[in-house]
Specification:
The protein is an all-alpha fold and 165 residues long. Helices cover 84% and strands 0% of the residues.
């Protein structure tokens, strides 16, 4: 990965982390004040909605930090090691957690007439898409495992060759 691509990725990560902090500091309190005006029939939705929003943003931040760490490992040439698996596992877990939170939001909004049924269906589709991303990262984890195994094997063979010579 070229230096320019790494810098561009890091700039995007910084922008997304800054934006997500803005969501947590500014948008969540504004959403909380907007939800104060909910109809009494739907006032029970306030706390769970806010909690889900905060947790989804936290999951996104977790993914961004782990990607930053993996890019750092890649630049140092240590990404094909067992240490990288920790960050990949955290990314998979964060995506699964985000998918479950989106499904929970859909289940929370489904009963009654708080939102249109199409919105609940869209939330189900979004949850499925997020779960699909977790599965893609899982497949990439398997590729990383193969690359690490081949790197270990190549190092072993190189050491054996050095002993012979």
């Amino acid at each position: 990965m070229g230096q320019l691509a790494v810098l561009a990725l890091r700039a995007v990560i910084v922008a997304l982390l800054t934006g997500s902090l803005g969501v947590q500091v500014v948008m969540v309190p504004l959403l909380a004040s907007d939800l104060d005006g909910l109809d009494a029939d739907y006032s029970y939705l306030r706390a769970p909605l806010l909690l889900i929003v905060v947790l989804v943003v936290l999951a996104a931040q977790t993914v961004l930090v782990c990607v930053w760490r993996l890019v750092t490992m890649m630049r140092r040439g240590t990404v094909f090691s067992h240490a990288a698996f920790r960050y990949v596992h955290i990314v998979i877990g964060a995506f699964v957690a985000a998918a479950l939170l989106v499904f929970a939001l859909g289940a929370l909004l489904a009963p009654g007439e708080a939102v249109a049924p199409g919105i609940v269906l869209l939330l189900g589709g979004a949850g499925l898409a997020i779960l699909g991303i977790a599965l893609i990262v899982l497949v990439l984890r398997m590729l990383l495992a193969q690359a690490v195994a081949r790197d270990v094997e190549a190092s072993r063979m190189q050491a054996e060759l050095a002993e012979v010579i």
